[in-house]
TrEMBL record:
Keyword list, A-Z: Repeat, Repressor, WD repeat
A single BP term in Gene Ontology: regulation of DNA-templated transcription
Organism: Arabidopsis suecica
WD repeat segments: 537-578
Keyword Repressor: yes
Coiled-coil spans in chain: none
Protein name stated in the entry: LIS1 homology motif
InterPro entries according to UniProt: CTLH_C (IPR006595), LisH (IPR006594), Topless_fam (IPR027728), TPR1-like_2nd (IPR054080), WD40_rpt (IPR001680)
Domain CTLH span(s) in chain numbering: 221-279
UniProt-listed PROSITE patterns: CTLH, LISH, WD_REPEATS_2, WD_REPEATS_REGION
Keyword Repressor: yes
Length: 747
């Protein structure tokens, strides 16, 4: 049997999927770099968006070098240029000089190189950055860099064939192993532990040392005493402490405490020259360093936390690779399936549930390998979270649209009576999420007394409210013409369009364009600078319900009231594909879900598309409109009124007509938290609305745990967890058995 490179590459993909499902994130990205079979652009771009340029540089260097080709050279150059522009100490010049001397020197200079862009970055006038400039939001520049780098990666011969992960059935590698070792699944953790040992052997034979030792730490199945001895011998005691700390804590028992103490002693002796042991080999004749090394090994063998993890199981060479090929050969012949692609890995039904070791993604600062509580956090009282109702003039008209400003310094709402409300707070107050203290926003009203109110449609029942912000101007409609307001003075500066056909949704597209969807199914692309219609897109028969644009793919997605999705190129305005997003399934209450798409939104990386229906939500591939994941809520949740991504894309906030907001994991749709808004609201004496529920939910643009909810009674409420652990962390009880009450939830 020939174990060729294709089998080895396929196995790496299966291992990467297993790491991803089990939450071994560090091992996952290290194996991507060590194996170079898959370039995770989402991970790469996330490092850039968070300002971790060294992390992004190291990841890119694992796959290509500046001298590899023109595209690689351009990618490194753009990355270093951005890093230079954000150098925080350019007044002294030390970081900028360091980037020049170390980073840019690595980029080869060719005849066609032009450093004009770089000259702009380090212009003399720009070297002295004022305090005001230092506070400018870096997110737009970083996001644009990610888009540019993605285009370069798609053309780069070193990366272009490594950007797509193959389609795999869930738990594919576990399914393979369970076919070979069915008895292992009966014992607690047996199957996964056996698989981890097989993976460790594969990594050792493939010489993926970085991944190997990181996986040992993340899984805690095997304590590699030889590795610990090796790093101590090299004097890398920080690594030794980190490795030991992944398995045990100094407070676990006396042996663990003694092991950490011995390593601390070695750190103190680090300046002492190494001494060779005498031939007798007894401890009495050894140098202090060798005695401490021997002591650490002896303590590990006695330590009850470690002693059962010191022996690695005996197995034949290349066991996992051999098993994979044998099983796939058997499966192919037994099922008369001639294809041996990864898509045909057999599925084992009991392995298709939620991974048992799904990590608690919201507690970033806590120790790794924590498991999410299967029962979601319940918030049934305002004191269990930070809740703030924004002040208004007692309007009881249902909130139709709601958004934060791009910088998060104001909230804008549009009610069904066509009136807008704008709440502001100062830029210093905008940092309140870091201090976990709410600001005191004010309802903004210009001195002129002007209000922003749209022209109403002739038929209120058929009207659709929509708005979009461009700089300091608001484009808005409530069924009539599209009005343009100055957000500072509230003055109406222009209006355009006609009541028939009626504008139902519009968004801005880079290039000074405005895409407007109408109730007759057509989409007009307006050029704002020339005030002319650039294109008319025709692909829908029903009214347009939503539009979404992806910077990453340069595509526009449109939806209509019949559930049809269309994908358009914003370069040629050609329709690339169309899909029907309706699914003929019944909810648990046996009522068929409606086909109306109520919301479209690309994730923060502009790659995946959130599609919201009244009966379910789905995650779609941005390039193909293929549905990757769907979620149907429980019967008690009634219909969905709104859903939106958090600013980091990790969670989705879902509002229901039943009065609840569910917070679900965007990758698994596991419910993390459920907020009962009915307990937050008390109807006014003159109110004729009996039910209060979230009509629209908006997420803060930079704080993932904060949302605003527009309610059916005209109120807007801002919500945020009490604790830094996020929505999945329950608030602790106070001394009286109740919840500590630091929030302002007066009405």
């Amino acid at each position: 049997m020939i174990l060729d490179e294709k089998n080895r590459k396929n196995l790496v993909f299966l291992i990467l999927q297993f790491f991803d499902e089990e939450g071994y994130e560090e091992s996952l990205h290290l194996l991507e770099q060590d194996s170079r079979v898959f370039f995770d652009f989402s991970y790469f771009s996330n490092a850039i968006l968070n300002g971790n340029f060294k992390e992004a540089d190291d990841y890119l260097l694992a796959f290509t070098r500046p001298e590899a080709n023109t595209y690689s050279r351009k990618m490194f150059f753009d990355l270093f240029k951005r890093k230079l522009s954000e150098a925080p100490d350019r007044s002294g010049g030390s970081e900028a000089v360091n980037i020049f001397s170390k980073d840019l020197r690595r980029i080869p200079v060719l005849k066609d190189d032009s450093f004009d862009d770089l000259v702009e970055v380090i212009a003399v006038d720009d070297m002295r950055i004022s305090e005001e400039t230092c506070c400018v939001d870096k997110a737009p520049g970083r996001a644009k860099l990610c888009v540019d780098l993605h285009k370069l990666a798609e053309s780069n011969p070193c990366l272009c064939d490594k950007l797509e992960f193959p389609s795999l059935n869930k738990s594919a590698l576990l399914s393979l192993i369970s076919l070979i070792c069915p008895n292992c699944s009966g014992r607690n953790g047996g199957l996964k532990e056996d698989l981890i040992c097989l993976i460790l052997q594969f990594l050792y034979e493939a010489k993926y040392k970085n991944t190997l030792h990181k996986l040992e730490q993340e899984t805690k199945v095997f304590f590699n005493l030889n590795y610990l001895a090796e790093v101590m011998k090299l004097g890398e005691y920080g690594k030794a402490e980190e490795y030991l700390g992944a398995f045990t804590d100094s407070k676990d028992n006396k042996y663990s405490k003694a092991m950490f103490l011995e390593i601390q002693k070695l750190i103190c002796l680090q300046s002492t020259e190494w001494e060779v042991a005498t031939p007798s080999g007894s401890l009495d004749n050894m140098s202090p360093k060798i005695k401490l090394h021997a002591s650490v090994a002896m303590l590990a063998k006695k330590n009850p936390v470690l002693k059962d993890k010191l022996k690695f199981p005996s197995m034949e060479k290349s066991r996992l690779l051999t098993l994979m090929k044998q099983t796939m050969d058997w499966w192919t012949s037994s099922t008369c399936n001639s294809s041996s692609s990864l898509e045909n890995v057999p599925v084992v039904s009991y392995l298709c549930g939620t991974p048992s070791s799904l990590r608690k993604k919201f507690n970033k600062t806590g120790p790794r390998k924590k498991v999410v509580n299967c029962k979601p956090n319940e918030i049934n009282d305002p004191s269990q979270c930070n809740a703030l109702v924004l002040p208004d003039y007692c309007s009881e008209e249902r909130i139709a649209r709601l958004t934060y400003s791009p910088s998060g310094d104001y909230i804008l709402a549009l009610a069904e009576d066509a009136a807008h409300n704008l709440w502001t707070w100062s830029s210093s107050q905008n940092e309140f999420c870091k201090e976990n203290v709410f600001p005191k926003p004010r309802l903004h009203q210009p001195q002129s007394g002007k209000t922003m109110k749209n022209e109403m449609a002739a038929s209120v029942q058929n009207s659709t409210s929509c708005f979009a912000i461009k700089g300091s101007y608001l484009f808005s409609t409530s069924g009539g013409k599209i009005a343009v307001f100055d957000l500072k003075s509230f003055e109406k500066v222009a209006s355009f369009g006609s009541p028939t056909p009626m504008a139902t949704y519009f968004i801005f597209i880079p290039g000074d364009l405005l895409a407007v969807g109408l109730d007759d199914g057509s989409i007009y692309i307006h050029c704002l600078s020339s005030r002319k219609v650039k294109e008319k897109l025709e692909g829908h028969d029903q009214k347009i319900t939503c539009l979404a644009f992806s910077r990453c793919f340069n595509v526009l997605v449109s939806s209509d009231s019949d559930g049809k999705l269309c994908l358009w190129s914003t370069k040629s305005w050609v329709k690339l594909t169309s899909k029907n997003s309706t699914r003929k399934f019944c909810t648990q209450s046996n009522h068929e879900s409606t086909s109306l798409v109520t919301h479209l939104q690309f994730d923060p990386y502009q790659i995946e598309l959130l599609v919201v229906h009244e009966g379910w939500i789905g995650i779609y591939e941005g390039r193909t409109l293929d549905c990757r994941l769907q979620w149907v809520p429980d019967e008690s949740d009634t219909s969905i009124t709104s859903a939106t991504y958090s600013s980091d894309g990790e969670i989705i906030y879902v509002g229901f007509r039943s009065g609840f907001i569910k917070i679900v994991d965007s990758r698994t749709f596991m419910t993390v938290c459920r907020i009962n808004l009915t307990s937050f609201t008390q109807p006014s004496p003159n109110s004729i609305r009996l039910e209060v529920y979230p009509t629209v939910v908006a997420a803060h643009p930079s704080h993932p745990s904060q949302i605003s909810a527009g309610l059916s009674n005209g109120k807007v409420i801002v919500l945020q967890p009490l604790w830094s652990g996020g929505w999945g962390e329950a608030a602790p009880l106070d001394d009286n058995g109740g919840y500590s009450n630091d929030s302002d939830h007066s009405y």
